[in-house]
Amino acid sequence: MKRSVAFLIGLAFAVGFVQPAGASHEIVVGLLCDRTGATQTVGVNLCPGFHDYTKLVNSKGGVEGHKIRLIEIDHEYKVPAGVEAYERFKKEGMVTMFVYGTPLVYALTQKLTEDRIPGISPGFGRADSTDGGRYPYIFPIAATYWSQGAGAVDFAKKQLGSLRGKKIAYIFFDNPAGREPIPVLEDLSGKEGFQLRTFAVPPPGVEMGAQVLDITQRYRADFVIGHLFGRSPSVSIKEFKRVGYPLKKVVSMVWGAAEADVLAAGGWPLAEGYYAMQFAGVGEDFPVLNEIRELYKKEGQPVPKEMASTVYYNRGVFSMALMIEAIRNAVMAKPDGRITGDDVKKGFEQIKSFTLGGMVPPLEITSHDHEGGGWVQIYQVKGGKFVKTTGWFKAYQDVVAKHIKEAGAKK
Q: How far apart are CA 293 and CA 57, in angstroms?
């Protein structure tokens, strides 16, 4: 009898009924994407970066031997579809997700908190979620819209020499994301002594001739801060160019700052002078991108065309790398790979000096600070490409911190 039991146990190991110690465990990550909706110009280039970085990691054996399964659902930038996708991800056992879209961040904040699953929103989302104490499962990593707004004002000040008495226009897509920076801009208006006027562009953002005329001929703005996304950034470039307003007096926040926006506007010569804010490196010369190209070369496959759209593609690579770094930290504490959302949350909060080979500034995330620094860079369209204008910088962090604190006091 004893020999029979021993034989059955040995057979079970042989055929896989019993996993040996240290066996790999698949780790599930959710990716909301918009490939067909209002912001598809972003999604079609951003989301391939997630898949390629995952492919790179899995080609090396995964995270400490555990493969990553990335599940993408196209939610078309629609809240109901995004919430439905979240529930599907959850059933698949995801431990973290990329949320995609400020409206989705607001819609999923409570669910993520209740389910104890960390969601990331690099360069978008709700700025007050920088406060990890109040929003333990939301990570607005990189630069929130409050930090971006502060950075844009600081850049305008450097361009104009002084803001006192100047007229600044803020043209924005009229939804929660577009409205998010306004309180910080209003505060800085009082602090720096400039006049601020806001110009809302209603969805879908493809008509803004009236707003541009108001900005340039009635208001006569000294500088313009743009916060448009989807199809609307390219429309703004064309409209400002059409009325003769110098594009060197326009700085776009991060979602109107890509090659796709310039090309949709009519090409590089038309957009000459346009300033674009970034939270990740632009261009093809980064070690991780070289690794991805080499991987495709070894497979005998062509390099994906999306890699040429470096602004959005690079952000996809960075965002996935960040989630995998958090997963790696979690797996180091649980080598069997059977990690939970809580484990990954702690993994995010252990990230320090993360640069992805120079693609991003040194990010440090803690349980109190889920933003990681608020760093931005400015590039300019010059000679048919984006040319770096500034190094990494952050601005008016005292003002941003005040708004974070005030948001907490209102709750």
A: 13
Taking phi over 0 as left and psi of -120 to 50 as alpha, with beta for the rest, 175 belongs to beta
Angle at 177 between CA 75 and CA 409, to 5 degrees: 120
Q: Where are the domains of the chain?
A: 27-143+286-348, 145-278+377-394
> CA 232, 238, 244, 248 torsion: positive or negative?
positive
Residue 16 clears pLDDT 60, i.e. is over it: no
Span 140-155, pLDDT tens digits = 999 999 999 999 999 9
Q: What is the CATH number of domain 145-278+377-394?
A: 3.40.50.2300
- Whether the CB-CB separation of 268 and 234 falls below 8 Å is answered with no
pLDDT band at 385 (very low <50, low <70, confident <90, very high): very high
CA atoms within 13 A on the CB side of 262: 27
Measure the CA–CA gap between 75 and 338, rounded to whole angstroms. Answer: 28
**27-143+286-348 CATH choice from 3.40.50.2300, 3.10.105.10, 3.30.56.10, 3.10.690.10:** 3.40.50.2300
